[in-house]
DNA sequence: TATTGTTATACTCTATAACTATA
DNA sequence: TATAGTTATAGAGTATAACAATA
């Protein structure tokens, strides 16, 4: 301990981040369950909507998920006809994955439900603070990788 | 869509939170590995230091972890003599868990390593912004449960 | 030969149930 | 009877390896 505590506070945010993310995930799972979706389904749907369609590899890369896990994820969504897989005409190895109308509709509903979950978890923060938090998270996330606000954002005018 | 986009931006922070927490965890795992620790070990050590000792149940409650998982976690730490388990004299069912000197030392080293991981993950944010982020996370986290800044905080004067 | 998607599989994480020793 | 800690175990999540189709 030096005499001057001037700089002082380097705070570790890692554990807090982990803790809060876990709570958010648990609450999100609860509110999404009635819609037959899980949080991971939602991020996939969101990226697909915002990108207007994507290959499975591209999706894996955007979500920083292992591509083998994308398969089952899309199987779920396809079984409920929320997405469609088509072979790409340009490269027949590729699947072009796109949202269906049902998918877009379900996504809207899910986003409304999620807003409720966030209200619970972030209820201690004022709206302006929540906006600040969002902005900080978005910048930190987009700095190191492709996934950024545009892909993970949702404006909800529709609840 | 109504005419006035006034309120507008309700942004979903859930996916961002999850994404960033995952990155932080991965980086933390990397920098902690040489010290023989994992992120979960660190939060346990931190809580034990800040609380000055705790029963395993209390620890489980603070960390919002299942108490059965605390057992293995403490086994790891005890095997490296970073913590001690003693039967409580007042209630011999209870274990009083406390940090050893080695544990306190290892915790310091780990916190320095973690600071590096955070620099990587949050590098896009200015110091003042990181402080703001920390403060928002802390308030959101402490609102709903016991785990709060004091328990998960680490001032590092010692790197 | 490399790449996209797929399957099978192993490994980790977490939670549930049953047991013990104390209260 | 209830509680603290422990063990065994099953389920979910995630990653690795091998394979088929296409480039």
CATH topology of the largest domain in chain A: Arc Repressor Mutant, subunit A
Rg from alpha-carbon coordinates of chain A = 18 Å
Number of domains of chain A: 2
What is the N-to-C order of secondary-structure elements of chain A (H for helix, E for strand)? Answer: HHHHEEHHH
Mean pLDDT reading of chain A: 87
Shape of chain A: globular
Q: Specify the oligomeric state.
A: homodimer
Strand content of chain A: 5-15%
Order of adjacent strands in the largest pleated sheet of chain A: 1-2
According to CATH, what is the class of the largest domain in chain A?
Mainly Alpha
Number of β-strand runs of chain A: 2
- Secondary-structure-derived class of chain A: mainly alpha
- How many H/I helical runs of chain A? 7
Major sheet attributes of chain A: 2 strands, antiparallel
- Output the CATH homologous superfamily of the largest domain in chain A: Winged helix-like DNA-binding domain superfamily/Winged helix DNA-binding domain
Distance from N terminus to C terminus of chain A (CA atoms, Å) equals 53 Å
| Low-pLDDT residue intervals, each spanning 5 or more residues of chain A | 1-9, 146-157
Largest interface: A-B, 61 and 61 residues
């Amino acid at each position: 301990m030096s005499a001057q505590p001037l700089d002082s506070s380097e705070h570790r945010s890692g554990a807090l981040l982990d803790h809060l993310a876990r709570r958010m995930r648990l609450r999100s799972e609860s509110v999404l369950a009635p819609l037959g979706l899980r949080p991971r389904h939602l991020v996939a749907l969101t990226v697909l909507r915002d990108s207007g369609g994507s290959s499975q590899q591209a999706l894996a890369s955007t979500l920083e998920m292992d591509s083998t896990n994308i398969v089952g994820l899309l199987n779920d969504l396809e079984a409920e006809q929320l997405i469609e897989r088509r072979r790409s005409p340009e490269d027949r190895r590729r699947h072009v994955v796109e949202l269906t109308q049902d998918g877009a509709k379900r996504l809207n509903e899910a986003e409304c439900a999620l807003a409720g979950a966030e209200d619970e978890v972030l209820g201690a923060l004022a709206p302006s603070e929540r906006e600040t938090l969002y902005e900080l998270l978005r910048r930190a996330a987009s700095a190191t990788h492709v996934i950024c606000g545009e892909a993970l954002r949702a404006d909800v005018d529709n609840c």
